[in-house]
Amino acid sequence: MSAASAAVTSVLPDRETLATHVAEWLVDEIARSTGPFSIALSGGSTPRPLFERLAEPARAARIDWSRVHLFWGDERFVPHDHPDSNYLMARRAMIDHVPIPPGNVHPVPTHGSPEEAARDYARTLRDFYQGERINPTAPLFNVNLLGMGGDGHTASLFPGSLALSERDDWVVAVIGEKPEPRITLTLPVLASAASVVFMVEGASKQEPLARARAGDPSVPAGLVWSDGQLIWFLDEAVAGGKIDPTD
Ligand SMILES: O=C1O[C@H](COP(=O)(O)O)[C@@H](O)[C@H](O)[C@H]1O
Questions:
Q1: CATH 3.40.50.1110: does it fit domain 7-222+230-239?
Q2: Domain range summary for the chain, segments of one domain joined by +
Q3: Which of 26, 28, 73 is closest to 54 using CA atoms?
Q4: Ranges for the Glucosamine/galactosamine-6-phosphate isomerase domain (predicted)?
Q5: Does the model's pTM come out above 0.90?
Q6: Ligand 1 near 149 CB (within 6 A)
Q7: Could you give the 3-state DSSP secondary structure of residue 47?
Q8: How far apart are CA 125 and CA 71, in angstroms?
């Protein structure tokens, strides 16, 4: 399945409304579920207002945080207190303000070497999943929240990267493509979610978004599929008035 097939699209007026809409969607998804609810978080700037919305007291009170497990789709290989850390951003915007049990927060380790960290995180994911191989009928995550960079990258899968072809390892170290090494889940693991959710905003991403949605293989976000449903949450600036929500 490619990003171009079986996708649902919601276009919201602006980034603030987008964040509120996705927060409400997530609250409803958690409320409708039973048992553990696992979410893979993205980093960068786009999800920050969403995390802040989820931490607002009235909304946070509607979430059974004891069932929520937080993972990350990718991480910069920097200490957890480094300003570039995806974990630190989520902690400051949300985790520090909600009653989630500490044991339910599963950041990507950033000690040792990047390769060791990738191996350790794959172990963490497999232990949570209670399986060594992904079964497409039993997704690892309830929700995998993804973003897209201006170059079309998603998680830490960059255009032309060897990591895009990885089908066996669940997590890989990406070295030499960015100033700092990255740790990223690979495509089959990113796809293993009941809902793979892209949140993309801003006029500067119109062009890569259009290519991703057309399934352009040179745009990593366009290579992501979902073992469940694929949802694009967009603001009008990135949709550019050109997106038919039924596409
Ligand atoms: O490097 C990253 O970038 C993407 C996109 O970030 P944004 O700032 O353009 O929203 C993000 O999805 C990814 O998790 C992050 O590590």
A1: no
A2: 7-222+230-239
A3: 26
A4: 13-232
A5: yes
A6: yes
A7: coil
A8: 9
